[in-house]
């Protein structure tokens, strides 16, 4: 792995920047707010004392759902720890003007709708093999993407580049408190190995608390599973 100034468009810088994207989604993501990596402007890497590697980045992210396609300039530090035992990357990021409650009114309306439904929600294959989904399932798809960002944050290394490929299924569960509870099977796509790992997730969501992943479990490799056509 190179040290010093990096080409912003090459894999080392892009991998570290993708971790920043996943980190922002775990902190700010919602049914109406998702972040995508727009551009890495500059990047450098250095070996740190514990044999890990630290990346310092200047990048721009954009909000994927917003009608205004709002962008945010961010400064970030990503440390991939060294050692024999794998551990999640450590991320520090500061973005200009980024606040948490920009979609709160829409979230509250959706939350009340989901709470008042006569039956628990469920959806499958978001999107389907042709990239389609029903409009009323899009918030569930977005929730699945946010939840999958917790997995991708946890699993990312200097040798991976994860995207979320598909929410294979998602089901609302009964909840005894104010948060909504969901179980989901998500398919990820590691662009380096071209593998499609499958993860079963248990998570909660409310406008006040955001998305919280309670349990994540990687399922055995499925040889019969077809690779989804689209990735995010």
Describe the protein's architecture and organization.
The protein is α+β, with helices and mostly antiparallel strands and 232 residues long. The protein folds into two domains: 4-95, Nuclear Transport Factor 2, Chain: A (Roll); 103-219, Nuclear Transport Factor 2, Chain: A (Roll), CATH 3.10.450. 21% of the residues lie in helices and 38% in strands. It has helices at residues 11-28, 104-116, 138-155; strands at 4-5, 35-47, 53-63, 71-80, 90-95, 122-126, 162-173, 180-190, 198-206, 210-218. Strands 1-2-3-4-5 form a five-stranded antiparallel beta sheet. A hairpin with a 7-residue loop joins β3 and β4 (71-80). The longest helix has 18 residues, at 11-28. The two termini are 26 Å apart.
Which features would summarize this protein structure in a list?
232 residues, alpha+beta, Nuclear Transport Factor 2, Chain: A, five-stranded antiparallel beta sheet, 3 helices, 10 strands, globular
């Amino acid at each position: 792995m190179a040290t010093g100034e990096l080409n912003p468009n090459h894999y080392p810088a892009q991998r570290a920047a993708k971790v920043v994207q996943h980190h922002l989604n775990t902190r700010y993501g919602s049914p109406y707010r998702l972040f995508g990596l727009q551009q890495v402007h500059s990047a450098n890497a250095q070996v740190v004392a514990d044999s890990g590697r630290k990346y310092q980045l200047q990048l721009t992210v954009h909000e994927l759902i917003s009608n205004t396609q709002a962008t945010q300039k961010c400064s970030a530090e990503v440390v991939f720890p060294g050692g024999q035992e794998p551990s999640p990357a450590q991320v520090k990021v500061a973005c200009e003007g980024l606040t948490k409650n920009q979609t709160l009114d829409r979230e509250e309306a959706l939350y009340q709708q989901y709470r008042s439904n006569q039956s628990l929600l469920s959806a499958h294959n978001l999107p389907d093999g042709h990239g389609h989904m029903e409009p009323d399932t899009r918030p569930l798809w977005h929730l699945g993407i946010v939840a999958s960002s917790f997995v991708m944050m946890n699993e990312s290394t200097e040798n991976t580049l994860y995207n979320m490929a598909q929410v294979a299924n998602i089901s609302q569960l009964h909840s005894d408190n104010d948060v909504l509870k969901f179980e989901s099977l998500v398919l990820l796509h590691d662009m380096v190995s071209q593998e499609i790992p499958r993860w079963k997730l248990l998570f909660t969501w409310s406008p006040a608390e955001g998305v919280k992943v309670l349990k994540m479990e990687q399922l055995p490799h499925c040889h019969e599973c077809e690779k989804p056509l689209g990735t995010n």
